[in-house]
Sequence to fold (684 residues):
Amino acid sequence: MTGEPAIAVTGLVKRFGERTVVDHVSIEVARGEIVGFLGPNGSGKTTTIRMMCGLLTPDEGEGRVLGHDILHDQRAIKREVGYMTQRFSFYEDLTIEENLQFVAGVFDLPREAVASTLADLGLTSRKGQLAGSLSGGWKQRLALAACIMHRPKLLMLDEPTAGVDPKARREFWDEIHQRAAEGLTVLVSTHYMDEAERCHRINYISYGKLITQGTVAEVVRDAGLTTMVLEGPRIAEAQRMLRSMHGVEQVAPYGNSLHVIGRDGPAVRKAAQTAAEATQSKLLEAETSLEDVFIQLMGASQDNMQ
Amino acid sequence: MSTFFSWQRLRTIIRKESIQMRRDRITFAMMLGVPLMQLMLFGFAINNDPKDLPAALVVPVQDRYSRAMVTALELTGYYRFTHPAATAAEAEALIAAGDVSFVVTMPSDFGRRFERGEHPQILIEADATDPAVASGAINTIGTVANEALLREARTEAAMAENQATKVDVVIHRRYNPEGLTQYNIVPGLLGVILQMTMVMMTAMALTRETERGTMENLLSMPVTPIEIMLGKVLPFFVVGAVQVVVVLVAARLIFGVPFAGSIWLLLLGVFVFVMALVVLGYVFSTLARTQMQAMQLTFFYFLPSILLSGFMFPFSGMPTWARWIGETLPLTHFLRLIRGVMLKGADLAAIASPLLALTGFAIGFTLLALSRFRQTLD
Ligand SMILES: Nc1ncnc2c1ncn2[C@@H]1O[C@H](COP(=O)(O)OP(=O)(O)OP(=O)(O)O)[C@@H](O)[C@H]1O
Ligand SMILES: [Mg+2]
Fold:
């Protein structure tokens, strides 16, 4: 039992009408792992997660979640998985406490569960407030608290920190890591690079296809990108020059510096050198960031689509 | 905890639905206010005993008897002869156009035959499309006519003493031969009111969750279709019960509708009817994708069920095809049941067939709802 991965799905396909929204996606997540699920808007993250927690029926593919067949044992999956939807989907016309009581009732949890969750959240004094009147960040916290209340073995979080302030985000990730250490498995979709870097492994999906997966270091290494950084007062000029130069695939300004990125290492170095000399900028080679890798991947898969 | 049904989960859903129902102030007020309003509106419109209704008199020869007749009828307060000297053709056009509610016709030899002691006839045609309009006026006419003519005859001292009821008053209720009365309407109103709120409210049950995005969360939890269905329809039994009490009390106290049969039999019928209604609403809810569509479905169903159930027009007066449609509507069977119990004092055996039909609807709709329920977001 413990040897079996928490998630093992292969070849998932989902079509909406003519469009194939998820195209043969296979994902494996070991128990106790925190896995990031990344990809541009509309790439099929939410759809994939819904298929894995039994909310959508895949058109093709099969798999097991916590050892239960995703096609036939949805009810068992629902009991053991905590799913936090992308959009707040608790009842806005119920109070915080009533929402938690509803979840507790459905999962047949003891009465104390609600009180202790309220205390953990620090919401005991505001328990009578309607959920709809909470701020965005608090709604997220409530939703998270509600979906871990029944002590699931697997958490599927769909952009749980969208619109949450940095401190709350930090606390959220601390909590996730702590629970993972206790054995909880987490699959979390996000658009934030720093969050991706906090995951043990990441999966990157684009246009419904799984493009790459592995640890952050592996993903960066596999991308095979070279990144050169120019620094100086005239980088705007350098940027214009570099745009049209051979081997340069991305040019991105960061404050006073400019990142020049491409797969062809020697060509990128040469181009950066030329531009640096022309604009009297300082030149150095840098580590490629995950974000640069993703931008590269997005561009590449768009080319694939044509 | 059982996989397919748990009281615990059902209780949880009922509790949640009841809280939401209470918080939705306007809807909640409507559920209790609308029935009262409808009852008053319909009830009084029908109970109203209108006076001074326009009438036409067709009489070839104006004599003292016809004049006495007009005076007497006008004195009752019901009739106002706007066309005291119409021809038969004119009168026909007037009543067809609705310009007059009555046409009183006296034959040309009326006076002569009356004096001779024969039984002359007066024909009164009433526009009974709205039975409430016609009933009061018609009820009084026989006595009024006789008294008037006798008085007229006596002043002339021409006739003997034994001339009571010498005139035959023939009444034709035009357009609505059965002549419904409020006794018929108020029990029917209970059916219409229940149907209105029960079906409309439950039709929103699932579409509201879908539209607010809470469906995704609900479905991601281990609740089963039957729990969701029961959890969403059962709270409406309380609302229905309140409406039943309101209407029955009003029927008795305000409209004086007699209650001939057993209250328990009536409540049994109402219970089965409400069950069929809430589940029907829930079926609509599984068919519609938005609250707007649910509303439209509900109204699509309302119109035939008001027109073809025998609420508005007598069932027996409808063509066969319309009666067949009527048979497929729960309201039709409920009307038979409630009119049977309330007005005719029917016993269980007498209402067995509508009761069975309603039970059939409830079971059928339940199966339909459960088979239609989408357990995924597909
Ligand atoms: N029920 C549906 N019917 C039709 N198309 C759908 C449906 N649900 C999703 N889609 C389409 O499928 C595609 C993938 O959607 P999905 O929500 O899975 O993307 P995502 O990766 O979660 O995007 P985001 O990062 O914006 O949340 C989108 O183009 C969306 O329009
Ligand atoms: Mg999404």
User: Anything to note?
Assistant: Chain A has two domains: 7-219, 225-287.
